[in-house]
Amino acid sequence: MVFSSLLFMFRFLPLVFILYYVLPAKCRNIILFLFSLFFYAWGEPVYVFLMLCSITVDYKIGKIINKMLQNGRRRAARNFLLVSVIYNLSVLGFFKYADFLIGTVNHIFGLSIPLTNLPLPIGISFFTFQTMSYTIDVYRQVTQAQTSWLDYGTYVSMFPQLIAGPIVQYKTIARQLRERTETSDDFVEGIHRFLVGLGKKVLLANNIGVLWDTISAMPVQNLPAATAWLGAIAYTFQIYFDFSGYSDMAIGLGRMFGFRFLENFQYPYTAKSITEFWRRWHISLSSWFREYVYIPLGGNRRGTARQIRNIAVVWILTGIWHGASWNFVAWGVYYGVLLILEKFVLRGFLEKLPRPLRVCYTLFFVVMGWVLFAFDDLGAGITYFTAMFGAGGFADQTTIYLLYNYAVLLAVLIFGSTQLPKKAAVWGMEKLRAQSWIFLFLRLAFYALVFLLSVAYLVDASYNPFLYFRF
Amino acid sequence: MKKTQNYMIITFFLLCIFGFSAASLCKPDTVFSEEENRELAQMPKLSLDDIVSGEFSKDYDAYLSDQFVFRNQWIGVKTEAERLAGKQEVNDIYFAKDDYLIEKHTGTFTDPQAAANLVYLRSFVEEQTARLGEGHVMALIAPNALCVLEDKLPAFADAREENAYLDQIRAALPAGSFVDVRDVLAEHKEEYLYYRTDHHWTTLGAWYAYETWAKALQAENAQDGSAPDSQADGGGTWYTPREMYQQETLTTEFYGTVEAKVNCETPADTIQAWIPLTEVSYTVSFNHDTQNVKDTLYDESFLKKRDKYAVFFGGNQPLTEIRTQAKTGRRLLVIKDSYANCFVPFAVQDMEQISMIDMRYFNERLSEYIAGNDFTDVLFLYNAAGFAEDVSLAKLAL
Q1: What residues in B contact A185, CB-CB < 8 Å?
Q2: Do B75 and A460 touch (CB under 8 A)?
Q3: Catalytic annotation on A322?
Q4: Cα(B295)–Cα(A39) distance, rounded to whole angstroms?
Q5: A190 and which of A156, A252, A416, B30 could share a cystine (Cβ 3.0–4.6 Å)?
Q6: Least CA distance to A210: which residue of chain B?
Q7: Hey, are the CB atoms on A401 and B52 less than 8 Å from each other?
Q8: Which H/E stretch holds residue B252?
């Protein structure tokens, strides 16, 4: 199930609200747990058992590690941690990467080992990373082992963050699982985040996605450069508003049930360097890799050569995490190289440039990166690059047609990628401090507009794709 | 005061969520949508197999969307929002000049199906020509509004693909067997040739095409001496000319299929029937049903329904057989889609027998049907987009 659907908003959510808030407080976790299983099972009735299995394995291992550490058997605890990590990576490897590996082996050795052709369990990349963060942190004694299977299951399966993140680390919500208070402030903030996210996904991402689909379906050999760039920019906006909109909805829903998840996006397209971009984009993923891969490998504390190796490892893994195909590996390597260059070569030079130039520099490489990302077939991505650099002429009548059709939307997207909307809201609130009712009215009008338009677009759901099922 | 405001926002949000939930639960299900001209999804049956396979979830999602309260109004709201944002098209429909809504047919003409259908058509035309002789088998692939009304499209919109596809058909078919009506329609493009809200041509559009075909038939047949005779009164045409028809307005409140896709405020269309001043008598029967022989081409009950274009022959029938007293010695087979429905009434005046076959619904073997009838002429009549997309044309070879 996805949030941006009539089913979620008008069947699932009302039912959760009623049961969660009407039944006694001690039932809250079990309600969340059961509804989360239902949420997961809606599209994947069978794989829900895989998730239950992961929950049980890591819950048990967490308990065992804890007990061994208490008995001073650190070595044994470490072995159990290894079991947990191997289990999680095997599940992920089997369901997500088996066919990719088989395909590659077949290709290299000219074999024909049959593919498994299993569909990817939704959200597997997210929940395996979450369960790993748990056992690793228990081993590191950063967090207590969970003593209730139900609470742990609630953490792993919690529907707001189940299928597209953010990757919530266990330690950040360990306490909230036991004791949390749902306040009206939280609920209002939750509504705000949910509606903003809904609008970003349904009104902005889906619509600009139509432009990308239109352009990427055109024959690439005579695609003029201006159209190719328009397409790449459209995809750049689509992926940001889709993903960050989904994160907003997740964070908002979490708030409605008293959970506080960490932010996942911080205006990434205003970044002044690639390094900064990755501090603002999919923050929960980059923090995960930093905390559980980069730093354990030694980070930057063991000399430049080691640091470069560590960056390379992290970025190849980041690439492959996004999907099982070569373009994602290339995409990861691309960022690894850029980050290493920035860190060791370009840093001084970049800092002298004026701010707008630095933003342009960053966006240029980000847009090129998304082109690599967008085409599963690496060759098709490269052909698209040639179109961007003029292999199919500069522009034609369709370029102009598309430009003026999407001018308003593009303006909204540019505005929406910056901090301006937030600043405008804060400014308005200050101005209307004395007449807070007017501000309330404006706020409700904005919510109503976003809600009604989103429902209208969902009912006419000729187009409501979901980009993150493959992660 | 913060608390009061909080509760107002929360109340507003919960009212939205619960209000529409309750309304959509209470609304009785609709079986058929006249606007969209299709059956709406119904509550799927619960079965263990469907739940495990995920089929149930899929069906339920479709059911919820199809049956949602105020469905048509929501679609209208979306259309208005798109137009306000400066979009010249919604759901692949152009908002063209003079209140025309014109289908875009994105990708239709470059799809592999379009190329495959071209091959099916060529072998069908060649095979029938071998049987009936040159000039007796023709294909009239009507251009869509997109192609003829290009001037009305939004600035810089590109509609060249359809034209290119029609050129391909022309080149692929044996010389003289493609009836190209693009020029004659372009000549009259300021007239009311296409409905503004529907994907069909008007009776006037069909007339220009009919006249072009009838002339082609005359010219081609003149060579083998089997030309349909000119009328006895001398100098006239072999077919009933335009002056011999009286135009009758059937309705001025027609909203067609294209309008249904965008649900926006737009003026309605007018449907006309051309009634001959001196009508030959004829009988019409559908699908071998000899019990229900009719003496009219029109089913006026459809004028009270949404799908008013179905007033011609009551919509698409697998097989329509017409026998007339025209005494011209011409017996015509029409392989057709719905563009023929307002075209064939003209032929009724000029043919002794007409069989119309809609390959999409016709389940007999075509060759057997042809063998059992003594046709003198064959006309393959489709609209270009419908032809390019049709998935039943492999049956032409059966």
Answers
A1: 2, 6
A2: yes
A3: yes
A4: 59
A5: A252
A6: B91
A7: no
A8: strand B245-254
The mean per-residue pLDDT over the stretch B237-249 comes to 91
pLDDT tens for residues B280-338?
A: 899 999 999 888 899 999 999 999 988 899 999 998 899 999 999 988 888 999 999 99
Q: Which of B242, B209, B237 is closest to B138 using CA atoms?
A: B209
8 Å CB contact of B77 and A188: no
- A87 — phi, psi (to 5°)? -55, -50
Q: Which of B231, B251, B254 is nearest to B243 (CA)?
A: B231
Residue of A409, A340, A410, A402 lying closest to A214 (CA atoms): A402
Q: Find, in chain A, the residue whose alpha carbon is nearest to that of B57.
A: A42
Question: Residue B267: is the preceding peptide bond cis (ω within 30°)?
Answer: no
Give, in order, the Cα–Cα distances in Å from A469 to each of A28, A125, A208, A345: 28, 10, 19, 37
Residue B22 CA, distance from chain mean position: 39
Q: CB-based contacts of B371: which residues, under 8 Å, 6+ apart?
A: none
Q: Which residues contact A103 (CB under 8 A, 6 or more apart)?
A: A115
A183 to chain B nearest CA, in Å?
A: 10
- Do A451 and B61 lie within an 8 Å CB cutoff? no
Could you give the CA distance from residue B320 to residue B318 in angstroms, rounded to a whole number? 7
Predicted pLDDT at B227: 53
Cα–Cα dist B233/B222, whole Å: 19
Strand order across the B93-95 sheet: B89-90, B93-95, B101-103
Q: Where are the domains of chain B?
A: 2-95, 107-397
Q: How far is Cα B166 from Cα B149, in angstroms, rounded to an integer? A: 15
- Quick: pLDDT tens for A296-329: 888 888 888 899 999 999 999 999 999 888 999 9
β-bridge pairing B377-383 and B353-357: unpaired
DSSP state of B201: B
Inspect the interface and report whether the beta carbons of B6 and A14 lie closer than 8 Å. no
The nearest alpha carbon in chain B to A396 belongs to: B156
- ipTM higher than 0.90? no
B46 touches chain A (CB under 8 A): no
Q: What is the distance in angstroms between the Cα of B220 and the nearest Cα belonging to chain A?
A: 40
How far, in Å, CA of A106 to CA of A92, rounded?
Answer: 21
> In this structure, what token pair is assigned to residue B235?
């100098």
Neighbour order of strands in the sheet with B353-357: B137-142, B377-383, B331-336, B353-357, B319-324, B282-286
Q: Look at the block and give the residue holding tokens 């029967």.
A: B285
Distance CA B155, CA A174 (A): 59
The pair of three-digit structure tokens given for residue A272, joined into one six-digit string: 């002044």
Contact B173, B135 (CB under 8 A): no
What A413-417 contacts at long range (C-beta under 8 Å, 24+ apart), as own/partner pairs, is A413/A204, A413/A208, A413/A237, A413/A241, A416/A200, A416/A204, A416/A241, A417/A237, A417/A240, A417/A267, A417/A269, A417/A270
- C-alpha B255/C-alpha A251 separation (Å) is 45
Interface contact B10, partner A, CB < 8 A: yes
Beta bridge partner(s), residue B377: B332
- Report the sign of the C-alpha dihedral through residues B93, B86, B107, B96, in that order: positive
Q: How many CB atoms lie within 10 A of CB A149?
A: 14
| B32 shares contact with chain A (CB less than 8 Å) | no
Question: Residue range A208-237: average pLDDT?
Answer: 93
Q: What is the pLDDT of residue B224?
A: 56
Q: How far is A457 from chain B (nearest CA, A)?
A: 6
Helical H segments across chain B, by residue range:
2-26, 48-53, 55-66, 71-84, 112-132, 145-148, 160-172, 182-187, 203-223, 257-262, 344-348, 366-371, 384-389
In tens, the pLDDT along B335-389 reads: 999 999 999 999 999 999 999 999 999 999 999 999 999 999 999 999 999 999 9
**Cα gap A400→A224, rounded to integer Å:** 11
* C-alpha closest to that of B362 among B317, B398, B310, B312: B317
